[in-house]
Amino acid sequence: MSSVVLDLLVALAILVGLVGAIVQVIPGGLVVGIAVFTWGAITGGTAGWTVAVLAAALTVGGVVLKYLIAGRYLKRRGVPNRSLLFGAVLGVIGFFVIPFVGLFIGFIGGTYLAELQRLGDPVAARKATGHAMRATGISILVELTLALLTAMAWLLALLSVRL
To answer: What are the tens digits of pLDDT across the range 119-141?
Structure first.
């Protein structure tokens, strides 16, 4: 495979991964990390292996950070994991019933229903659902930030190898 084809395939995978980090249909940060790691391993040399190791570190760090930060946020606000799990299950069902937007509708509705059942108060359930939505936004921002850092590292490595 020529280096130009490899570069284009990695750029396409990075683009798909960045969109996935925002839309949350695929694990975008993981896609970006794997693409950049693969490019670095195939390219080799100091720049290739440096960006491969950096991509692995940023990807693992991103996965861990997004769950730690969002989990801590939710724990401080008293939203249990069970409610999020119920929201996630209904989100997946919603994704197939109403493509794309059903994921969000199902997650919000499922979290609200779980919190309504747990708390018995519609106002408190709505507030807890808002916290869950903010935590989701935080995790998206963390994943996107680290995916962008990985993509920038790849671009710098690409420029140093090809120029």
So the answer is: 999 999 999 999 999 998 999 99
